[in-house]
Amino acid sequence: MSCTKAILLAAGLGTRLRPLTDHTPKCLVPIAGRPLLDYWVEQLVVAGVKEVLINTHHLPEAVRVYIESINARGQLQLRETYEPELLGSAGTLAAHPQFADDAEEILIIYADNFSNVNLCDLLAYHHRHEDPATMLLFHAPNPRACGIAELDEQQRIIGFQEKPSQPTSDLANAGVYVFEADLYRQIAAKRVFDLGFDVLPTLVGKMRGWIWEGYYRDIGTYDTYLAAQREVVEWWQRAGRFQGCRPAVFLDRDGTLIESVHYLSRPAQVKLVPGGGEAVKQLRAAGFACILVTNQSPIGQGLITEADLVKIHNVLFEQLAQHETTLDGIYYSTQATQIKDRTVVEFYDRKPGPGLLFQAAQELQLDLTRSWMVGDMISDLLAGYHAHCQELILVDSGKGLEGVAIPPYLHPFSHQVSDLSAAVSLIL
Q1: Where among 171, 188, 223 does a domain terminate?
Q2: Residues 388, 326 within the same domain
Q3: Is 376 an annotated catalytic residue?
Q4: Does the pLDDT of residue 1 top 60, yes or no?
């Protein structure tokens, strides 16, 4: 029986995403709290694809764990092909010519791109024309940095150039293709290395372009990856995902909600900042969820245990209860960082990464676009910014900026006040 199969090209090193990719393979870096691959797998399931080949290279063990989790759902089967040495995009096809057996067409997807493209519509378009290949296209903001296609009136690709100095259009290769099974076998038989340079130019005049007008982002660089975190929230907002969700105030712990103690390790060291209990009470009375988000590298360093942290936070809850209030949630990271720069996201779930905020938003049904981030360091502000909080507040009651200037792009969103009580006055 004929069917559609897919290949996810996911073996890239992700060197431009370091230090994130020192710990996480590029295809699994989180976007709004979900692995990047999740978004492609979801679309493949909707499109009815049942068999998917995925190549691995860097940190393959993590991808294997992910593959097991997907296969356990039973919606499709992911099969790994490990490449000790990278074969190249066309080389992966050459290593698996038999993958086209019993297939009508093969979807090829560069899995380090991020998009909400509708693969059902792409396949439907491919079935409506007679050429053996279809390329997904998007409008590139910088065509000189992309592979650019020129179309005729039938959307046939009549010209294609990689990174042209004088682009003929802004229609860029999105790294998603549909190849008829016979064409796939022909490409595999060529035994060449790269699809972009070795294969696509030979398909000019034999391939159609399908233009996606929705969201598309190449997350190949650190800056574009972080930009995607904010953009996905805008995407959710347009889809009405936040309807009925309440706003939150995300609070740093040490120096913001409680007095700052270097590597706080004992419950007896916990002390609310002056006015801290009343501040939380006022926020919750005004309809805000109050969420504590805190980096706890002492756990990663072995200085305290998670059981110790529970005891510390129990004392915090007891002190808040004396003010007839509480927190709606506590989220913490345990990673021990190797980087001194508090503006660099080394771990997604460690501020300045936005992971804790996204986790809280998903679990507690929070509207990030109406939420605030309050903290005493630049890493707090950046975590809130990357999660698309509407406003950011720096309090002077803790460590402060430590010689780091607030980046210009934060200025429209950021405020600086004396302490938590002043922050609450600003919020309310």
Answers
A1: 223
A2: yes
A3: no
A4: no
